[in-house]
Amino acid sequence: MISRRRFLAGLVVGACSMGGLLEGRATEQPVGMLYDATRCIGCGLCKRACEEKNQLPEGRAHVDVLRAENGRERCLRRACMHCLNPACASACPVGALQKTPQGPVIYHKERCIGCRYCMVACPLGIPRLNWEENFPYIQKCQMCADRIARGDSPACASACPTGALQFGLRAELLKSAKERLAQEKLYLFGEHELGGTSVLYLSDVPFAELGLQCQREEPLPELTAAMLHKVPWVVGALALGLSGLYWVRQRQKSGEEPKEE
User: Fold this and answer.
1) Which of 7, 50, 217, 251 is the most buried (most CB within 10 A)?
2) Which of 196, 189, 95, 198 is nearest to 142 (CA)?
3) What percent of the chain has pLDDT over 70?
4) What is the CATH number of the domain that holds 86?
5) How far apart are CA 217 and CA 232, in angstroms?
């Protein structure tokens, strides 16, 4: 029997892509996820589902659930927010990170050169290097883009027992979140922050008190582009300077050698 959650996920994906999400086809209705911190009980089932789906060792999930206490204990999901205009993809010089039309920001391991610009660019510190491998590579949540393509919801959302993680069209999730805001004193993250994100957060506690400090609304690639524009000049100047020092030092050494009689 097909579960209600899986059936709805299939309808969402069908409306968005007609089976071709990962082929780069344009879509007017990108998908996303809504995380409701008021419903999260910190059970960790989302983490285990992520580990199982991605064949990761225990404790290496691409998602984490942190506990914050400010009079009231609250949980906060920590994973890639899949920004609408991601700084990580903008900073990557080889296109190893890509924002897909349907929503997920995916990582192409075979393209990565290990420069780690994405780690520097991300304001939330999400991309991380897997130092346990002989050839380290970046790890981050990909919103189970392969599952979405075949009509399933992300593994973490499917495993959530309380409905704290909801998958669907971003526009519909945003509408649902705003309806909650009109009825309750809640806080919303992701509509405008970082230029907008595909993963939206709801909380009854200010996000800054939960450790989510980045409230910038402008897309960060505007900053990373300016930074990366200067990188070739800085590296070139450094290389030229070091070459000059090496030449001077070699000249000094040659002058110190005793002359043959």
Assistant:
1) 50
2) 198
3) 69
4) 3.30.70.20
5) 28
* Residue 150 near residue 127 (C-beta atoms within 8 A): no
Q: Which domain holds residue 136?
A: 4-219
Q: What was the pLDDT predicted at 142? A: 96
Tell me: do 240 and 214 sit in the same domain: no
Specify the pLDDT at position 21. 41
**Would 160 be classed as within a structural domain?**
yes
pLDDT of 225:
52
State the average pLDDT over residues 250-261.
Answer: 57
Find the radius of gyration of the CA atoms of the chain: 23
CB 168 within 8 A of CB 12: yes
Question: Which residue, among 224, 247, 205, has the nearest Cα to 86 in the 3D structure?
Answer: 224
Instruction: Give 169-200 pLDDT, tens digit per residue.
Output: 999 999 999 999 999 999 999 999 999 999 99
Predicted TM-score of the model (pTM): 0.74
DSSP secondary structure letters along 90-132: HH-TT--EEE-TTS-EEE-GGG--S--HHHHH-TT---EE-TT
52 and 100 in a common domain: yes
Residues of 151-165 as b/e, b for ≥16 C-beta within 10 angstroms? bbbbbbbbbbeeebb
User: Taking the CA of residue 72 as centre, how many other CA atoms within 13 Å lie in the half-sphere pointing to its CB?
Assistant: 10
User: In this structure, is residue 158 part of a structural domain?
Assistant: yes
